[in-house]
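Hey, why these numbers?
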Amino acid sequence: MDHCQHRESTYVQVPMELEQGIIFVEATVDGQKGTFILDTGSPTLLVNDNIIRKGAKKMLSVSSDYPAQAVRIGQFAWAGIQKQGLEAYVLDLSHLEQTHHREILGVIGYPLFADHALLIDTQNEQILMAKTSPDLFEHYAQPQSTFAFSLRQHLPVLQVRIGHGSYAFGFDSGSSVNFIDRGVLEALPADHYRLSGRQEVYGFSTEPRQLPVVRIPAFNPGGPSLSQATFLVTDFSGFAKSGLKIDGLLGFPFLEDTIISLDYREKELTFWIRTPFCYSSSLN
């Protein structure tokens, strides 16, 4: 992990690993260092139930009213962020471990970077974290275009254009694919999309789902147009019932081969153009 200096500010530069559209990082929970998924779509920190099975003694159950058991983490550390007494939820992630052939300790969600600017460079597999203005990222890359997003509950939401309509799409770095609501698709003119088969997809559920795949030739997320953007079609009514009204999710295909930053305090998403690395010093 490196610290880079710019305009009297500091950002933390940490490596990530990409596999099948999922971002993996290293973090430490109650003394156990291991692999976590970085997920801007997760409302909380999730920990794999194998941590409980291994007897993490600092974890204390605080609730049994939810499908996932709530626990209290003694200490959590990632990307220079230190948290103590953090509430998290326990989930069985064994199916993701089997899919990716690695041990996964958990999922890093919104509370861990809610007061930060977060830059994701998928091509070079780097993440930059800053608590000050994301302008300091200009030593790493040059801003190309910036767009406002709203924060609906925990989720960054962009207004995107499909044809002549405007729709609300959440940004979810933990999703390996894009999703669109079935109701939105049914309301579009037939020439705005085309079906291209079905695809099996896993979520945090252990059961895979077979979903229709559509291609939308004229999809514009308010920034650079995504030519022939591909979406899996699903039902978003469950989100609406929980108070989160969105029309789709932008996952890894939205990030691929780009540099994107999310400034959660200013509620801005920026596309960046690569520049040479900053001169940095390695931290022990």
Observations:
- The chain is about 10% helix and 50% strand.
- The CA atoms of residues 55 and 203 lie 26 Å apart.
- The first strand starts at residue 2 and ends at 6.
- The radius of gyration is 19 Å.
